[in-house]
Design a protein that fits this description.
By secondary structure, the chain is of the alpha+beta class. The chain is built from 14 helices and 13 strands. The chain is globular and about 100 Å long. About 11% of the residues have low confidence.
């Protein structure tokens, strides 16, 4: 019996007497043999290999069924460290390579547009020597799988809640894209953890366009134990498929049980004697429901549920810190802190000058008010997008706090509002402290809730100090300036902290702890920075010969 003829175009098998392929209609080549998959192993690049005349390979960071990842340095940008992902063509048929290459380009373009604190930044993508490469920011840390093993296979409830909230935030961001991006392969090996506990999602999206290799932990529709039931059928995956995977991860982190060993079997955590809040147990069981319609509706809903759970770790003060602004000393002529007693003629002249200016528009005041608002908006937008490594952590009343550059900039925001309110009046302090931060937050979180009460905190501080020092004509004594700033900060922080009782369903004890800690740190920081800024303003005015 004659051998079958395989189409060079689509790979379909045809009878020996056929001239054209029954599948695609293309002309057949007599004697054509069955196409063999592409053999293109990854992870073979040696150290010091230069890709694209730019990226120098340092060593292989990891290998898997979808390709390999190298640690490299960008020789055109100061030898900064980058991660270069080499995509595998292993097991692709020759006729599938063009489509896979097109999918790679399209997906790389989509990923390059994503900007989120829990996603690595995509810097470049290219092809070289028949392989596809993706260049992204290098993440210093380890996978959640490795970290979990180092901790004995289980993590405290407080830490699990924090990890869950961060994962919900980034997955909600992906699901909100148009069209939505479904992660589909959420598992501990695809999650990176930095030394300070920050979480990143890696290895997503682009891999779904490629056939996997022989890695035992990866399949076409997801990973065994973590993939939702619908990912094994013909139905299309939805955001609720990622919710199931996240539920499996949270379950593993709390129980120490690897879901790959017994997929789809998740008995209640509390029924196994594991100490977790009842609300958390109920939430995770709902996320792991076999019927996707019975799971939570969205990642945003899961995040809110995690934040509502009464637990010491349910509070993440960093996320509630109001967006900071930058210091921009006004150019309006400052007056000395202690005004000398003027003779009667000078007082009369000053009064006449003020009377003559009452009908004129103070363009200088308007310019610096608008400039302050713009700066606050720009810096708030940047801070919402950026990440700030933790300097150190401490706990007060079972509430964990972390100190970082974000906290310092938060205090700077208050100082700007306090300075403007004391120097130019309550309405200027209100506008500078409120409009910029609210607009900046809205631009980033327009599709979800954000901590607007902490933006109002800054505006209230600027407004209140302006009212308290109104009769001082922006010339308060240093002691009075510090006292009034402390009172303004206390009132603003009290509003923000206790507003979370109904905005975030915080307990009174947690809100009180946050109020005490942030008020104390803010007052001390404001005293230092505000005194420095006020002295600088006064010295500058004197050097220019202004009163």
């Amino acid at each position: 019996m004659s051998s079958l003829i395989f189409c060079d175009t689509c790979g379909a098998a045809n009878q020996p007497n056929q001239t054209y392929c029954f599948s695609c209609g293309r002309a057949l080549t007599a004697g054509a043999q069955k196409p063999t998959p592409v053999s293109a192993p990854t992870g073979m690049l040696a150290a010091n290999t230069l890709l694209k005349q730019r990226y120098r390979i340092l060593h292989t960071a990891g290998k898997g069924g979808m390709g390999a990842v190298y640690e490299a340095e960008d020789t055109q940008l100061g030898n900064r460290l980058v991660a270069v992902k080499e995509m595998s063509q292993q097991n692709l048929m020759p006729n599938e390579v063009p489509d896979a290459a097109e999918n790679f380009k399209r997906e790389a373009y989509i990923l390059a547009r994503l900007q989120h604190p829990n996603l690595p930044s995509i810097h470049d993508y290219f092809t070289e020597a028949g392989r596809w490469y993706l260049v992204m920011s290098f993440i210093q840390g380890e996978t959640l799988q490795k970290y979990l093993a180092q901790q004995g296979g289980k993590l405290p409830v407080a830490e699990v809640l924090q990890i869950g909230i961060e994962l919900c935030a980034v997955l909600d961001y992906l699901h909100a894209q148009k069209p939505p991006i479904i992660f589909r392969d959420l598992k501990p090996t695809n999650i990176m953890r930095t030394p300070d506990g920050h979480i990143y999602l890696i290895d997503f999206g682009i891999a779904r366009h490629f056939k996997p290799g022989q890695a035992k932990d990866t399949a076409i529709f997801g990973s065994k134990g973590y993939a939702a039931p619908e990912q094994y059928g013909r139905s299309q995956t939805t955001p609720r498929s990622d919710i199931y995977s996240l539920g499996a991860i949270l379950y593993q982190l709390l129980s120490g049980r690897n879901p790959t060993q017994t997929p789809f079997r998740f008995p209640s955590l509390r029924s196994q004697g594991i100490t977790v809040p009842a609300e958390l147990d109920t939430l995770i069981m709902g996320m792991l429901d076999m019927n996707e319609n019975h799971r939570p509706q969205s990642m945003h809903a899961v995040k809110e549920a995690l934040q509502r759970i009464t637990s010491p770790a349910a509070v993440t003060p960093t996320t509630m810190v109001p967006p900071p602004a930058a210091i921009h000393p006004p150019a309006s002529p400052p007056k000395p802190i202690l005004a000398p007693t003027q003779p009667a003629p000078a007082q009369a002249a000053a009064a006449n000058a003020n009377n003559n200016n009452r009908g004129k528009i103070n363009w200088e005041l308007i310019r610096f008010t608008v400039l302050g608002i713009i700066l606050c908006g720009i810096i708030t937008f940047w801070l919402d997008r950026g990440t700030f490594p933790t300097w150190f952590r401490f706990v007060v009343g079972n509430v964990p706090f972390r100190v970082s550059l974000f906290l310092v900039l938060d205090i700077v925001t208050l100082v700007i509002a306090l300075f403007c309110g004391a120097k130019f009046g309550p309405w200027v302090g209100l506008l500078v402290g409120g409009v910029g931060t609210l607009v900046g937050d809205y631009l980033v979180f327009s599709s979800s809730k954000f901590g607007w009460n902490w933006d109002v905190r800054v505006a209230l501080a600027g407004f209140i100090i302006g009212l308290l020092l109104r009769k001082a004509h922006a010339q308060p004594a240093r002691l009075r300036l510090n006292a009034m700033s402390a009172l303004a900060v206390t009132i603003g922080t009290a509003f923000a902290s206790y507003a979370d009782l109904w905005l975030r369903n915080e307990t009174f004890a947690i809100a009180t702890n946050i109020f005490i800690v942030y008020t104390a740190m803010s007052i001390v920081g404001c005293w230092i920075l505000l005194s420095f800024l006020w002295t600088l303003s006064t010295t500058t005015a004197k050097s220019k010969g202004k009163p």
